[in-house]
Amino acid sequence: QPKMYVKNEKLYGAEALVRWYKDGEMISPGKFIPLFEKNKFIMKLDLYIFEQVCKDMSLWKEKYNFVPTISINVSKEHFANENFIDEYAKIVDKHKIERGKIDIEITESATTEEKVDTLKLLNSIKEKGFLVSIDDFGTGYSSLSMLQNMPIDIIKIDKIFVDKADLNSDNNIINYIMFIAKHLGVKTIVEGVETKEQVEFIKKIKSDIIQGYYYSKPISKEEFEIYFNEHK
User: Fold this and answer.
1) How confident is the model at residue 78 (pLDDT cuts 50, 70, 90)?
2) Which of 15, 53, 113, 226 falls 20 to 30 Å from 215 in CA-CA distance?
3) Residue 66 burial (CB count, 10 A)
4) Which helix (H) or strand (E) holds 23?
5) Interval 128-186: pLDDT, tens
6) Rounded to a whole number, what is the distance in angstroms from the first to the last CA of the chain?
7) Other CB atoms closer than 10 Å to residue 14's CB: what's the count?
8) Is the pLDDT of residue 206 over 60?
């Protein structure tokens, strides 16, 4: 799903999303992801998706001399192994992709997992040269401490804050999140944006990046190639 710069509506990059088609029908990620997390198959799926994305990025580099920044979700099941990011780095290097073009996306709830040294984990990802983004920001309990103490590049502000915002007011929670993020030097992505009015509101509060159906639904790799050539 494409992500667009707020200031000029050019392409910033995209989020890689997994879809499962069986007998011509799509199975919702909400059905198979929890199952894969339970039986730990999610770790194999994550690595498969990661390698596929790196292959695609390598192809785009060769074909178009253009490599958008791609965010890839990493499941919390990986965090039990402190060295998991080494395997990711090897995959990126094998396909000769700049590590800074890969955004490792972690849900906010995953950072509160017991027995996980979150700070050490995020530092390890950063030391390898990857970007770090926190998904569903603002829906958990550790948000402010995370912003202040952890090496985060990007926060993705959950669509609930846009859906509930008074678009004619400056007195919304999202305004304050934006204020804090900017003062700490953290980029912001507002997700779930669906209307022109929401886009204008997000421009007003000066977020960095927008993601949502207003610009594009999740699309296939082939459709994305056409999209980024039109918007880069």
Assistant:
1) confident
2) 53
3) 13
4) none
5) 999 999 887 766 655 666 777 789 999 999 888 888 888 888 888 899 889 889 988 99
6) 15
7) 24
8) yes
Give dist(CA 87, CA 153) in Å, integer.
21
What confidence score (pLDDT) does residue 136 get? 78
Which has the closest alpha carbon to 191: 73, 75, 81? Answer: 73
Q: What are phi and psi for residue 186, nearest 5 degrees?
A: -105, 130
The whole-angstrom separation of Cα 186 and Cα 62 is 31
| Predicted confidence band of residue 112 (pLDDT cuts 50, 70, 90) | low
In sequence order, what DSSP letters do the residues of 174-229 get, joined into one string? HHHHHHHHHHTT-EEEEE---SHHHHHHHHHHT-SEEESTTT-----HHHHHHHHH
The pTM for the full model equals: 0.92
Closest by alpha carbon to 105, among 154, 58, 141? 154
What distance separates the 2 farthest-apart alpha carbons in the chain? 50
Q: Which residues of 136-175 are buried (b: 16+ CB within 10 A; e: fewer)?
A: bbbebeebeebbeebebbbbbbbbebbeebeeeeeebebb
How far CA 167 is from CA of 58, 139, 144, 192, 193, in Å, comes to 41, 20, 24, 15, 13
Residue pair 47/104 in contact (Cβ under 8 Å)? The answer is no
